[in-house]
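chain and backbone:
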Amino acid sequence: PFKKILYQSHLVTLKLYIQMLLQQKEFLSILEQEIDELAMQFEEYEILHSIPGVGCKIAATLIAEIGEIKQFSHPKKLVAYAGIDPRIYQSGKFTASINRITKRGSTRLRQALYTAVQCGLTNNRNTKLREFYDKKRSEGKPHKVAIIACANKLLHWIYAILKHKEIFNA
């Protein structure tokens, strides 16, 4: 009888956890709808959404993380803000051959760019990006280095289209 009571107790607890998870899932879907509605109010949303590989959530994240594009006077400043600029090690005559990214900027922006590049390369959605990626790979760059180079290129494109308020031309 004790095992049966313990088993029933676990079932009740499990049912409660399932109900809580379903409620959280419903709450998250409501939040996602609100985020989409808020993002659509921005002119930049449609501009960013025109880039192949940049979906609704990534466009909303880019708008939130970049903010006003006028605060960056040059695309390299936006790249530095994202933290995907190379960190160069030098000392006297020595210059390191392996340079990593600085990661000093917005983590969420870096993640959104990385995801956008991955989505753009999948099924050749973004042909310009695919050509650039293939060029970097043919130069002997490893996959992740080529992806970060593509993210850098994508950020330059984002800067240009937001600055001129134009739709992306693939």
